[in-house]
Amino acid sequence: MKIIGFFNLKHLPLLGAITSGLLVAALFAWSIGLIWFANQTSNTKFDRDSHTDAIVVLTGGSGRLEAGLQLLNDGLGKKLFVSGVTKGLQPIDLFNSSAQIISELKCCIKIGYDASNTAENAKETASWFNAHNFTSLRVVTASYHMPRSMMEFRRSLPNATLVANPIFPQHVKVRDWWYHQGTSKLIASEYAKFLLIMIKPTT
User: What is the full DSSP assignment across 27-88?
Assistant: First the structure.
């Protein structure tokens, strides 16, 4: 049977070569991007000293809440917002600290209960942030989660000054991550989510 038009059998090897070439190029670009992304998650050089109007902690990982409370106690922010908290929990339930310290800082801590993912974290925080007419925000989350979080926060708070404050959980081996199966899977997953956000239309 004769195939009419471009898709003649004689063109199949050429089409196969083009398809293979495109797949190889896409895989190469994805791999370069993954290496760049992983480097962002292992970067320990960040602004540790700038004062911001507010601090936000995104729940979901070890060390974040304690770091946020310490930043507030050190005077690096006027207010601390904790986003993505299970309904009903209060500051005393969240922080691994003494009741006295929590009591002293309770006036400056606000809990958000309406977020269940990173995009909702950004929107929930933006609503609170704008209500207080703040202009600068320090974002506290895990290092592997920071690139995606900062992208979402820049979309929700385009005019705010944002300072990244990554936390480096001990169980996530961001250095030499390719040697650790759990960490490599986590970073690859975060990278895939990061790419999806890049192509997601802004609302």
Answer: HHHHHHHHHHHHHHHH------S--EEEEEEE-SSTTHHHHHHHHHHTTSEEEEEEESPPTT
